[in-house]
Amino acid sequence: MLACHFGRNFQVTVAGGSYQEGLTSIIHGNPPGMSITEQEIYGDLLLRKPGVDELSSPRKEPDLPVIYSGINVEDTVPDAGNKNHTNGTPLVILIPNLDRHFKHIKEYQDTNRTPRPGHASYATFQKYGPDDDAIGAGFFSGRYTSTIVAAGCIAKKILKKCGIDVFAYIKELASVHCPDVTHEKVKKSSDQYKKFRRDYDPFYQQIYNDGRINMDMRFLEKMKVLAKVEQQINQIQQKAPKINPDEIKDQYGIHHILNCPDIDAADEMTNACNKISAQGDSAGGLVEVIVTGAPPGLGEPVFAKLDAELGRMLGIGAVKAVEVGAGIAVKDMTGSQSNDQMKAENGKVKFQSNNAGGVTGGISTGQSIIARITIKPTPTIAIPQKTIDKYTLENKTLEAITRRDATIVARIWPVAENYTAIAILDLLMTHFGYQTLKNKIKQ
Which of 163, 312, 345, 364 is deepest in the core (most CB within 10 A)? Predict the structure, then answer.
């Protein structure tokens, strides 16, 4: 497998699989001197993990990360205050698989001869042969996206220091649309949703807030705790606070399941998705990502244009289309409708629209950067489907018995958010270098 790497300056290499020992994210190019904790990383990972609501797979992977290398384990000199700071070497984050019991492996073994329609299982068997990591779909499971989220958490923290925010939300699910809302409302709603999820996540509270794992512990000490957690997953989850939708709405101003800034639309989305799931089927949707505070000039034509880099989100499993700005709607516009006209006001340029999504010529204009990803329905469904035996080529019928999501839209938005952060930071580092050289030459 030769393409598990992203970036030129801020580089990310990922490895692992759904039912292997775990997954790994290796991050190159992160600057020294940044404080980082496993609790911070988990704060993003818990947003995409399964088993947290009625729309997600019942798999109970806690996705507890372990920083293996890339930070100072102690102050470099007495009282330096740089313990747990990045030191400029590659940051390695491990995400062990803790909920991979044999009964679930057996379910995959019993169905792996018959590839799931819509899933990668037929194509990967053709490419890798009988040694294809087919248990739980291996590297083609949605679990691998945890590596992107872990790396993107680091990228977002660096971008925040540069005045850049990246946030995402569910724009559409099961053909129910979220009405247009301001970026400010989306940001506030998204921040509150993340806070709610942290406050109500039993692992966040019992593992990190209670200090069972902390940054003073050595790697093997942390693994000893995780070995116990593996046996206690059900007990820990049973201690999760009971969710009262009305209380969540009153306290946080958000929907208790979906990261959608319009609560009424989120209710409609949930109901529509549950109706589809009750029939054994699954639903798809749309996620929008917004970047604010990015300077003009990001993007390196011809082959590293900003919109082209965002288009690489097609590499996220189940994403079938990426739009920037007005996207495919431009086909129904005239030039005068599509063009974002400008005017000067108090010495600054202001745009009268943003159909370009903050990108022209592959370079950021200084406006908010807007991208949307189209996500297909979960291919694993509980409806009989026609397939074949991949060894004998006999025609077969498959009805999934493995754990499945009613939709993966509700778990992909944090992946899109963090993937975008990785791409933006990579281009920002190039941009800073280019501008520094340009200014040096002028001196």
Answer: 364
How far apart are the C-alpha atoms of 418 and 166, rounded to whole Å?
8
Give percent of the chain with pLDDT exceeding 90: 79
Instruction: In whole angstroms, give the CA distance from residue 150 to residue 360.
Output: 30
Phi, psi of 363, rounded to the nearest 5 degrees: -125, 140
pLDDT in tens, 159-168: 999 999 999 9
Label residue 137 exposed, middle or buried (CB < 10 Å: 0-12, 13-18, 19+). Answer: buried
Distance CA 8, CA 41 (A): 23
Task: Residue 371: give its domain's CATH number.
Answer: 3.60.150.10
CB atoms inside a 10 Å sphere around CB 403: 17
Q: What residues pair up with 375 in beta bridges, in sequence order?
A: 285, 319
Beta strands 319-324 and 5-6 are: unpaired
Cα–Cα distance measured from residue 148 to residue 417, given in angstroms and rounded to the nearest whole number: 10
- 344 DSSP assignment: E
Q: Which residues pair with 67 in a beta bridge?
A: 93
Q: Which tens digit of pLDDT belongs to each residue from 81-113?
A: 999 999 999 999 999 999 876 667 777 777 788
Residue from 47, 48, 142, 57 nearest 405 by CA: 57
Q: How many structural domains are present in the chain?
A: 1
CA distance 198 to 178: 24
303 by DSSP, 3-state: which? coil
Rounded to whole angstroms, the Cα distance separating 31 from 307 reads 25
Could you write out the DSSP letters of every residue in 64-88?
A: --EEEESB-SS-SSTT---TTBB-S
Q: What is the DSSP string of 262-288?
A: -HHHHHHHHHHHHHHHHTT--B-EEEE
Q: Could you write out the DSSP letters of every residue in 143-170?
A: GGHHHHHHHHHHHHHHHHHTT-EEEEEE
Residue 290 has pLDDT above 90, yes or no: yes
pLDDT of 156 higher than 90: yes
Residue 233 pLDDT exceeds 90: yes
Other Cβ atoms less than 10 A from the Cβ of 265: the count is: 21
User: In this structure, is the dihedral angle defined by the CA atoms of residues 103, 106, 111 and 115, taken in order, positive or negative?
Assistant: positive
Instruction: Output the furthest CA–CA distance in the chain (Å, rounded).
Output: 73
Is 133 a residue whose pLDDT tops 70?
Answer: yes
- Give residue 339's domain range: 5-442
The conformation of residue 407, written as its DSSP 8-state character, comes to: B
Q: Rounded to an integer, what distance in angstroms lies between the CA atom of residue 70 and that of residue 339?
A: 46
Q: For residues 222-241, give the mean pLDDT.
A: 94
